[in-house]
Amino acid sequence: MTHKRQGSGRQPGTLPVSAVLTTKNEEGNVVPCLATVQWAAEVIVVDSGSSDETVARAAPLADRVLHHEYVSPARQKNWIIPQAQYPWVLIIDADERVTPELEADIRRVMTTGPEHRGYWIYRRNTFLGREVRHGGWQKDKVIRLFARDHGRYPDVRVHEELAVDGSVGVLQGRFLHHTIPSLRGYWAKMERYAGWWAEGKAEAGKRASTWSVFFHTVGRFGKMYIIRGGFLDGGHGLMVSILASFSVFQKYANLWELSRTRVDPD
After folding, report:
1. Where are the alpha helices (DSSP H) in 81-209?
2. CA of residue 166 relative to chain centroid, distance
3. According to the model, what pLDDT value does residue 266 have?
4. Tell me, what's the pLDDT at 12?
5. Is domain 15-180 given the CATH code 3.30.470.10 in the classification?
6. Which segments of 82-147 does DSSP mark as H helices, in order?
7. pLDDT for the residue 141
8. What is the structure's pLDDT at 265?
9. Helix (H, G, I), strand (E, B), or coil: what is residue 25?
10. Phi-psi label, residue 119: left if phi above 0, alpha if psi -120 to 50, beta otherwise
11. Which segments within 24-167 are labelled E, that is strand?
12. Rounded CA gap, 141 and 163, in Å?
């Protein structure tokens, strides 16, 4: 589905960048997300069967709205990257926003000429509407701006990170990342990701004991809340540390179950 959004097609002020967003049932996020990438010469949305108003709301803000069956985050993004019209690509998730500072930084790089084939972008992460500045979240970064023909995602199901054929720099501007807007959505996402993570580890021959489940869970809480200063974020920092340790418990408990099944199928 092709559209003609206002300001697209390399109009004055746009950058030779294709901004790409993958979606499924993101009607609450898609408009504020796409509103922050209208400076790009091309905006592409790839939807994987949304049953809400995601596609209808995205259409006026995108040049192309495509449909592709979802298998994994990596495969979805790898499918669309070669279809980008411009030589540089910016991948953005629906719960992310390009801040004015990040836009200015991308403009600087595109104007002066990229010195690298890809760029790390740090993220300012929020939890239930409040930015979390400690516990390790302040170091969260992703490679999202890259030369189209020199970047692809490894075929993994979770925690995929772009592999770039060449040097990678760092941008000063940051994404605003609304990582956990509600606990209800968080539980479903973590359950799904924990299962994928455990299956991937089991296929690679990894196992988990009951003690490894315990130590990894407790270790994650201690590292985030105490060592990395999560307590400095008050109640939100405590909750984030608890949730992070519980997500680790989910992953290793699933791996423990798979390990036990392989050893003793009865």
Report:
1. 100-112, 183-203
2. 22
3. 40
4. 55
5. no
6. 100-112
7. 94
8. 45
9. coil
10. beta
11. 40-47, 64-67, 88-92, 96-98, 118-127, 130-131, 141-147, 151-152, 163-164
12. 14
**What does residue 195 show for φ and ψ, rounded to 5 degrees?**
-65, -45
| Low-confidence residues in the chain, pLDDT < 70 | 1-13, 159, 262-266
Residue whose pair of structure tokens reads 């989910």 in the numeric block = 250
CA–CA dist 247, 236 (Å, integer): 16
Q: Which two tokens stand for residue 118?
A: 């890809």
> Which residues belong to CATH 3.90.550.10 in the chain?
15-180
pTM, to two decimals: 0.84
DSSP H or E run through 177: strand 175-180
Q: Which of 135, 107, 124 is nearest to 233 (CA)?
A: 135
HSE at residue 193, side-chain half, CA atoms within 13 A, is 15
User: 28 near 53, Cβ under 8 Å?
Assistant: no
Kindly report the CA angle at 40 between 76 and 6, in degrees rounded to 5?
110
Q: How many whole angstroms separate alpha carbon 195 and alpha carbon 197?
A: 5
Residues 6+ apart with CB under 8 A from 2: 63, 64
pLDDT tens digits along 67-108: 999 988 899 999 999 999 999 999 999 999 999 999 999 999
